[in-house]
Amino acid sequence: MRIGILGTGGMAAALGSAWTAAGHHVMIGGRDRVRARQTAERISASGHGTLTDAAGHGDAVLVAIPAAQAPAVVGGLAEHLAGRTVVDCTNPLAPTGEGLMLATSDGTSLAGRLAMAAPGAHVVKAFNMCHVSIWSMRPPVFEDVALSVPYCADHPTAIVVTQTLISSIGCTPAPCGGLARAGYLEATAAFAIGLWFAGGQPRAVFPSPAESPQP
Ligand SMILES: NC(=O)c1ccc[n+]([C@@H]2O[C@H](COP(=O)([O-])OP(=O)(O)OC[C@H]3O[C@@H](n4cnc5c(N)ncnc54)[C@H](OP(=O)(O)O)[C@@H]3O)[C@@H](O)[C@H]2O)c1
């Protein structure tokens, strides 16, 4: 698959490296072409270029820039993103006196904002739940269980593309409904990050009823 990545930082490198190792054709796109080249060379990506180059390259396009800037950047690329699967891994969080809080207080998820900014794109929420260090694992497996990657998507093609992005790096796709539910993934990431900072273990918080001796 052809994958364009908007961003040259930690998430771009971690997921771009995993997808490159899985045989996908990854193009790193950045506003700084030197950084785009450096990141692409570091992970042996197929190519590098501008944000527009990466948007136009991908069957899938990963948005790996800060949430606060993402709607404007994606809106500016809307014509290049039309018809493509646009994967939003951003976490719209802002520091407050109560800790990191969601910065989407009007109730519209960041993924929903990207869908409004680029109406022809097939926006998906995915890959936002884990720290960059987890995406750097080959593969991310814990106690012999592959990492589950929750995603929210509406478009049938985008669902298939997302499942491929997830399974090709050794993870298990976990469908969580349509894009209207993307805010739940963003809120859950905010919750999990707060728990990490408090020294807690999110993996211990969510056992399914099936794991109880009396389900
Ligand atoms: N780090 C994590 O553990 C993690 C986990 C899950 C999700 N996420 C999400 O993934 C996204 C990227 O995080 P990261 O850790 O990869 O961040 P990062 O290492 O700081 O990289 C951010 C990238 O965004 C680019 N950027 C910043 N403002 C921009 C703008 N206005 N236009 C175009 N590009 C811009 C930066 O370019 P320059 O180098 O030119 O500044 C850089 O390439 C964030 O939304 C974050 O919430 C992060």
Automatic annotation (TrEMBL):
Gene Ontology terms, MF aspect: oxidoreductase activity
Annotated Pfam families: F420_oxidored (PF03807)
Protein's UniProt keywords contain Transferase: no
Keywords (A to Z) from UniProt: Oxidoreductase
Residues in coiled coil: none
Domain Pyrroline-5-carboxylate reductase catalytic N-terminal: residue ranges: 2-92
Domain of life: Bacteria
Protein's UniProt keywords contain Isomerase: no
PANTHER family recorded: DUDULIN-RELATED, REDUCTASE
Protein name: NADP oxidoreductase
